[in-house]
């Protein structure tokens, strides 16, 4: 059932991304960078659910497409920092809007259902695994970012 729900969600999201000419994996990279840039390739890889290991090929294609730019790290000349180009930022904003529309279609379906309990069960399933670690790291980074922005 989980696999069926994941596949249906993936198909729907893929269709919504078609006008942008992006894959779900590319959209995840753009959203991760939008939320946390600049990041090294290793840091991007740690935050991705779509890709285990190094996302170097995926990111290289996105650099070639003009969505991501690579710059030498000002802190460590051996590292490269990745950030969004203007085109990448525009795409990330469109993806965020698509995600919100997608989640909006789920809201009426899930209204009154035990969503919190289901989320807790799903966290148990992914805890300590690469995808769970990536989501937990994103959650922690987002929390730290919000802390820094508070007066």
UniProtKB/TrEMBL annotation:
SUPFAM superfamilies: Winged helix' DNA-binding domain. It holds the Pfam family HTH_27. It is found in: Cytoplasm. The keyword DNA-binding applies. GO terms for molecular function: DNA binding; DNA-binding transcription factor activity. One of its GO terms (biological process) is response to stress. The keyword Lipid biosynthesis does not apply. InterPro entries: HTH_MarR-typ (IPR000835), MarR/SlyA-like (IPR039422), WH-like_DNA-bd_sf (IPR036388), WH_DNA-bd_sf (IPR036390). Residues 1-127 form the HTH marR-type domain. Keywords: DNA-binding. GO terms for cellular component: cytoplasm. Its main location: cytoplasm. This is Winged helix DNA-binding protein. It comes from Paenibacillus sonchi. The lineage of its organism: Bacteria, Bacillati, Bacillota, Bacilli, Bacillales.
